[in-house]
């Protein structure tokens, strides 16, 4: 009788030993202020605290494959913890020369060939899946939930429905709606980055990084949080012929991605910080895949002109302005005079649907020769559908013209197929040693680290909206550094020289004006990250104000260091950037006036010549008004600055 009982007892004991135990671990950032707790029973959840304040409540993570397998289900087989104290030296220096990369990492390894990686930085938290399957996989869905404590205020750009397309078609250019999270409609689909502002404590920017071969993350509200939504894979597309033809998805699959089985997936990113921290953040860049293009010394930040917003409405010229050789020679002369590197030939220099069908009146070889004689580069606009079809011969043509920078436009999607278009074009451009900028585009998500020649992109409601709407307000402009810019550089295209108050403003094509002051437009060249900064104003106006334009032209577009001196979300921001021994300070304000005092304690020893361009005494009713002043300062001093409603300023500090 004893033997069967013994066998029964042993069998029962072994079943207890084999049962997986629930997993839970808390790890902290290097400075100890950000804490991440990861738990796993039937599924994985994460929670985030900042200085003992709950920011993110337990939130689910999972990925379901086409095979039915769910990644992130159950308890991990093992976990690994490490601390990293490293630095990144970016191959193209744009915001700072050395990027501090310090974090704590937790990796959960599961039995079925996948892992979850978590990183905790002093300025945020990120996680991603990693798989090691031999064969390719289909991702049916991804669960990315972010539950927030205490009903924060959410700043989100909502996708606006378009006729005859599904909800995943958008140019990613919308103003921010602001409301408590529990008042955000469940039906709204928004694109990231999104900012969440608790009543107390730090801000949180929700976005992603390392978006490669996978769809981008949209967001919707789900109870007390936000949930990731991903565009299904496009099974069929149709080319809709128009002035700006583009591919529209006509049928989508029941999965979001087909991809290689051995890979890492995009990071889900929560950037955490104060109003001063967020605009200077490079967390998204740190998380991205390092450069794939080898030597990037040929990638050259600089300044460019563009003529599209003003509709080439020149005056005081001895020729008929338009898309013709004489006009672009005029732009070349303008660029040379005021220290710009290149001019952009925007839409119209060729047939939009055929890059080799040059517009009558355009003699490209003659223009190329003239620009080269003046030391100015030509840059070319392209339509994405056309560039994709003519990619290889277009690269050869651009190379023969000495073109080192192109724009491509009207993608308006971020499903997996379109995301791969960005990679394909960036690689082709890199092979030809050409920089690329994307318009009608989703946010950068660290792409500029992986492809340093993808130097900037749009994904922002910028200057062009002044042509047809009232959306590009100073209130909007001052939100961008805290939200959109956290994801990477943005091409706003400032520099409009007709400036108006809220009451005076009218959207007028061909006579485009901006809302806010002249110095508000000027300050954007410093406050906004864009290593190719584009002046969109009218050169005929600019030539009448040479001192202003010489000052604007003297401001670099890439910097050795970036600091935010003062900031208040939605109110104002003051940024300082270093280039060599010199510093530049720029500030933007909303529709309220602001009086600020700027400490100069970040300067080095010795004296600096401070040249300031600030709102003039009448800028509150005539926003064109500005004034220059010059004085000698040291690091022990402070500078008072007044911002008119919709105002701004820019100060250049040169070491004596």
From TrEMBL:
Signal peptide (UniProt feature, chain positions): 1-18
Entry-linked Pfam families: GH97_C, GH97_N, Glyco_hydro_97
Domain Glycosyl-hydrolase 97 C-terminal oligomerisation: start-end pairs: 559-653
UniProt protein name: Glycoside hydrolase 97
Molecular-function annotations in GO: carbohydrate binding; hydrolase activity, acting on glycosyl bonds
Gene3D superfamilies: 2.70.98.10, Aldolase class I, Golgi alpha-mannosidase II
Quaternary structure note: Monomer.
Positions of the Glycosyl-hydrolase 97 N-terminal domain: 27-290
Cofactors demanded by this protein: Ca(2+)
InterPro entries: Aldolase_TIM, GH, GH-type_carb-bd, GH97_C, GH97_catalytic, GH97_N, Glyco_hydro_b, Glycosyl_hydrolase_97
Domain of life: Bacteria
Keyword terms: Calcium, Glycosidase, Hydrolase, Signal
Segments forming domain Glycosyl-hydrolase 97 catalytic: 308-460
């Amino acid at each position: 009788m004893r033997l069967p009982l013994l066998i029964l007892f042993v069998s029962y004991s072994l079943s207890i030993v084999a049962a997986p135990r629930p997993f839970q671990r808390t790890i902290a950032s290097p400075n100890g202020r950000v804490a991440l707790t990861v738990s796993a029973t039937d599924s994985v959840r994460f929670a985030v605290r900042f200085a003992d304040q709950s920011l993110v409540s337990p939130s689910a993570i999972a990925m379901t494959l086409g095979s039915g397998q769910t990644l992130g289900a159950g308890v991990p087989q093992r976990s690994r913890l490490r601390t990293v104290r490293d630095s990144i030296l970016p191959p193209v220096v744009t915001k700072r020369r050395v990027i501090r990369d310090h974090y704590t990492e937790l990796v959960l390894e599961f039995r079925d060939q996948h892992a979850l990686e978590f990183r905790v930085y002093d300025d945020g938290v990120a996680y991603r899946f990693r798989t090691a399957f031999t064969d390719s996989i289909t991702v049916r869905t991804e669960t990315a939930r972010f539950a927030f404590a205490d009903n924060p205020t959410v700043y989100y750009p909502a996708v606006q429905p378009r006729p005859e397309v599904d909800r995943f078609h958008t140019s990613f250019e919308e103003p921010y709606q602001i409301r408590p999270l529990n008042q955000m409609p469940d039906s709204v689909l928004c694109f990231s980055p999104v900012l969440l502002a608790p009543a107390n404590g730090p801000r949180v920017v929700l976005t992603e990084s390392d978006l490669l071969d996978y769809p981008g993350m949209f967001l919707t509200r789900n109870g007390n949080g936000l949930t990731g939504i991903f565009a299904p894979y496009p099974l069929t597309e149709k080319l809709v012929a128009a002035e700006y033809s583009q591919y529209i998805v006509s049928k989508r699959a029941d999965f979001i991605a087909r991809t290689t089985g051995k890979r890492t997936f995009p990071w889900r990113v929560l950037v955490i910080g104060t109003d001063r921290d967020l605009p200077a953040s490079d967390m998204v860049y740190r998380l991205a895949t390092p450069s794939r293009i080898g030597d990037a010394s040929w990638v050259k930040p600089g300044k460019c002109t563009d003529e599209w917003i003003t509709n080439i409405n020149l005056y005081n010229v001895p020729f008929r302005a338009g898309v013709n050789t004489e006009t672009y020679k005029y732009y070349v002369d303008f660029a040379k005079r005021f220290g710009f590197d290149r001019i952009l030939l925007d839409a119209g220099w060729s047939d939009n649907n055929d890059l080799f069908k040059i517009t009558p009146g355009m003699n490209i070889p003659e223009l190329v020769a003239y620009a080269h004689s003046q030391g100015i580069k030509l840059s070319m606009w392209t339509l994405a559908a056309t560039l994709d079809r003519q990619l290889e011969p277009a690269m050869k043509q651009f190379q023969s013209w000495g073109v080192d920078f192109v724009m491509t436009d009207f993608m308006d999607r971020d499903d997996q197929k379109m995301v791969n278009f960005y990679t394909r074009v960036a690689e082709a451009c890199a092979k030809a040693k050409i920089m690329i900028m994307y318009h009608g585009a989703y946010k950068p998500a660290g792409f500029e680290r992986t492809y340093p020649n993808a130097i900037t992109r749009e994904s922002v409601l910028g200057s062009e909206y002044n042509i047809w709407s009232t959306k590009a307000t100073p209130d909007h402009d001052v939100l961008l550094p805290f939200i959109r810019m956290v994801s990477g550089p943005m091409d706003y295209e400032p520099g409009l020289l007709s400036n108006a108050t809220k009451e005076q403003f009218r959207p007028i094509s061909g006579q485009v004006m901006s809302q806010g002051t002249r110095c508000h437009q000027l300050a954007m060249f410093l406050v906004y990250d864009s290593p190719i900064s584009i002046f969109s104003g009218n050169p005929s106006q600019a030539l009448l104000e040479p001192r202003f334009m010489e000052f604007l032209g003297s401001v670099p577009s890439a910097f050795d260091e970036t600091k935010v001196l003062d900031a208040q979300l939605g109110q104002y921001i003051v940024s300082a950037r270093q280039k060599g021994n010199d510093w530049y300070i720029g500030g933007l304000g909303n529709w309220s006036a602001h009086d600020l005092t700027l400490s100069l304690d970040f300067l080095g020893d010795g004296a600096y010549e401070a040249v300031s361009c600030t709102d003039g005494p009448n800028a509150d009713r005539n926003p064109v008004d500005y004034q220059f002043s010059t004085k000698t300062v040291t690091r022990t001093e402070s500078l008072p600055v007044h911002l008119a409603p919709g105002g701004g300023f820019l100060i250049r500090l040169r070491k004596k």
